[in-house]
Amino acid sequence: MKFFWFIICLLFPLIDRLSSLNIECDYASAYFEAVGDLYYCDSKYDLDIFSRQSATIDEAVGKHGYGKTGKDVGAIYFLNKTVKYFPQAVDKLFPNLKAIAIWGGGTKEIHQSDLKPFLKLVHFILHECEIEVLEDGLFQFNPKLKYISFHGNKIFHIHPNVFDNLKNLSWLYLGSNKCINNASENSTKSVNSLIPVVKNKCKSSEFIHFDEDLKKLEAGIEKGELKNFKAEFAEFKTKFVSSAFKDSYTLGSRFDKLNDYLTGLNEKIYWTLLDKVEALDNKIEQITRGMKAGEF
User: Which region is the signal sequence (predicted)?
Assistant: First the structure.
C-alpha cells in the first residue's frame, strides 16, 4: 500500500503538468506599428485549445532576456500557429501587453470578454483566421487601440458600434472578408471615412439575435437554472433552425458555435443533462445535414 501511494506521489506532478496548457515563448524585441519597439513572446508551438472553456493558459515557458520578466513583455505573437480560441488568462502572465497578433491561427471567434483585461492594447491583429462576426462593444475596454487588422477572415457582420470608442484608430484592415474588402491606414481621418462603409456593407441582425440567445442560454446554465433546461434548449433549437432557413450562409457557423457550447457543457461535467443535450444535439445535426443536402 505504501508503494502504491509512493507511485501516485511520483506520477501526480507529471499528470498535472500534462493536463495544463502552457505557451512556450521565444523572447525577442521587434517593431510593432503604432507602438514602436516591444519586447515580445513569439509562440513556438500550436495551442491545444478545443473550446473556450479549455483556453486558460497556465504558464509561459521560455528563457527571458537578461533582466527581463513577464512584466516586461509588451506583445504576444502567433505566426502560423493553431489558436482556435482566444487564449485566456494571458494578462496574468503578461500584464503590460500593448500588442497582440495572431496570423493564420484559425481563430474562430473573438469576444469583448477576451479583450477586457488588455486596457493598454494599441495594436491588435487577427490575420487570415476564421472570424465571422465582430460583436457589439467588442473593443469597449480597449480605448487606446490605434491599429486593428482582420484581413483575410470570413466576416459577414460587424456591429455598427464596434469602433465608436476608438478615437485614435489610424489603421483598420478589413480586406478579403465576406462583407467587405476595404482598408485605411496611417490616418484617423481615413478610418473615419471607412466606418460608414463598414456599417453599410456589414449589417446582419439575424446572427446577432442568435448570438444573444446562445449567451442567455449559457448564462442560465452557469447560474444553475436547470429546471427548464430541456424546454429552453428545445426553443433555442427551433430558433436555430428557423433562422438558418432565412440565411443559409450562416448555418455552418451557427452549428459550430452550438457544438462548441455543448462540448463546453460536457467538459464542465453536467452529466445529468448529458443525455438530453446529446439527444437534442443529434436532432439539430440531422436537420442541419438535411438542409445542407437540400432535403428541406
Answer: 1-20
Same domain, 70 and 172: yes
For residue 61, list its beta bridge partners.
24
SS3 114: helix
* Residue 252, domain extent: 205-292
Same domain (yes/no): 160, 238: no
Examine the domain organization and report whether 141 and 271 are in the same domain.
no
- The per-residue pLDDT for 14 is 38
Residue 244 amino acid letter: A
Q: Is residue 15 part of a domain?
A: no
Of 176, 171, 202, 162, the C-alpha closest to 189 is 171
For residues 257 and 74, what is the distance between their CA atoms, to the nearest angstrom? 32
This prediction's pTM: 0.69
What is the rounded CA–CA span in Å between residue 26 and residue 38? 14
Going by C-alpha positions, the residue among 273, 231, 274, 236 that lies closest to residue 255 is: 236
Q: Which amino acid is at 56?
A: T
Calpha distance 213→225 (Å, rounded): 15
What is the per-residue pLDDT across 183-223, written as a single tens digit (0 to 9) for each?
999 999 999 999 999 999 988 655 555 556 666 666 666 66
**Same domain as 82, residue 123:** yes
3-class secondary structure, 24 = strand
- The CA distances from residue 43 to 47, 105, 203, in Å, are 9, 11, 35
- How does pLDDT run across 77-102, given as a tens digit for each residue? 999 999 999 999 999 999 999 999 99
